[in-house]
Amino acid sequence: MDVLIQKAAVLHEALPYIQRFQGRVFVVKYGGHAMIDERLKRSFARDVCLLRYVGINVVVVHGGGPQISRTLQQMGIQSTFRGGHRVTDDATMDVVEMVLGGQINSEIVGLISEEGGRAVGLSGKDAQLVTARRKAPVQVTEDGQSVSADLGRVGVIDRVRPQLLKDLFDKGYIPVVAPIAKAENGEALNVNADTAAGKIAAALGAAKFMLMTDVEGVKDQNGELIRSLRAREAKSLIESGVISGGMIPKVECALAAVDGGVEKVHIVDGRVMHALLLEIFTDEGIGSEIQKLDSPVRA
Q1: Strand partners, 62
Q2: Is 204 in a helix, a strand, or coil?
Q3: 155-158: which pairs have CB atoms within 8 A and are 24 or more residues apart?
């Protein structure tokens, strides 16, 4: 009986959040271990369906870097990285489209559909959802020298046209978006999935942008999880070196999203079962939230 009462208490705790966010938009960047572990993959699909069933409009934007690297290797195409960036030549871009826009996208759509959701697979090229231009050459250090490196068909996002996503919301669908953009000349460009998700969230005026990672969230100088930060605090932590390494681009992506109009960004550990629901529908959450303005409570 105690277990049953505890389950009822969880539902009571979730109710105010369900009421608050009904009809709002959540954008979820899906990536990391949650895309590899079979149990987590199915759990994620079910959680997305639950969000949609309680009236929240969900967009899933996914990555797929490890899968791209594996497929390139299987096809005998050499992966080239310069300054930490993958060089995307024409042959690599063909694989990127095949893996992101085909294999991974269709798998996520299938999982959500199996759990009862109505998912639709898209890429940024559809209806010019995401348009971009080629990234300018970047300066990298090679053999002790600073040189200019052309990354090929790597894109910088210029514009997001969210009307297609809104139309799908109206019909009860869950859009699943592969981070492939279209340039003015019609060529496909490989864009960063975190950045694409943040730009889409801003264009939709999302209530929440959820960044799924393989870490707990943002931590302080003592290694303790920081549950809530204002944008200015996050910037200060980057400047002081407390936020470092791979967390820097995640937090910078979050800052760009809140600056673009997203109400809150949540960095959550995708290795935890039901991470989305625990962050959204509980008072304390499990990750780190970043917002532009001061707020007395998590929400």
Answers
A1: 30
A2: helix
A3: 155/181, 155/183, 155/189, 155/190, 155/191, 156/132, 156/191, 157/130, 157/131, 157/132, 157/181, 157/191, 157/195, 157/196, 157/199, 158/131, 158/132, 158/133
Burial readout 12-24 (b: 16 or more C-beta within 10 A, e: otherwise):
eebeebbeebeee
Least confident residue range of 62-76, 131-145, 155-169: 131-145
* Tally of structural domains, the chain: 1
pLDDT at 137: 86
Q: Which residues on adjacent β-strands are paired with residue 26?
A: 58, 208
| CATH code of residue 120 | 3.40.1160.10
Q: What is the pLDDT of residues 244-277, one digit of tens each?
A: 888 889 999 999 999 999 999 999 998 989 999 9
Please provide the DSSP assignment of 18-45 as one string: HHHHTT-EEEEEE-GGGGT-HHHHHHHH
Does any domain span residue 216?
Answer: yes
Residue-range definition of the domain harbouring residue 100 = 20-291
Q: What is the pTM for the complete model shown?
A: 0.91
Token output for 31: 């990536």
196, β-bridge pairs: none
Query: 140 and 151 in contact (C-beta within 8 Å)?
Result: no
Distance CA 123, CA 116 (A): 22
